Amino acid sequence: MINRIMVVGAGLMGAGIALVTAKAGFRVTIVDRTVEDLERAKQHMHKSIASLVKRGVYLAEETRYLLEDIQFSTKLEDGKDADLVIEAIPEKLGLKQAMFRELDEAVQTEAILASNTSSLSIAAIGSATRRPDKVVGTHFFSPVPMMELLEIVRALETSDETMRQLLEFGERLGKKTITAKDFPGFTVNRVLVPMLNEAAFLVMEGNDPHDIDKGMTLGANHPLGPLRLSDYVGIDVILFTLESLYEGFNDSKYRPCPLLRRMVEAGRLGKKSGQGFYKYD
Question: 72, 223, 241, 255: least surrounded by Cβ within 10 Å?
Answer without folding.
Answer: 223
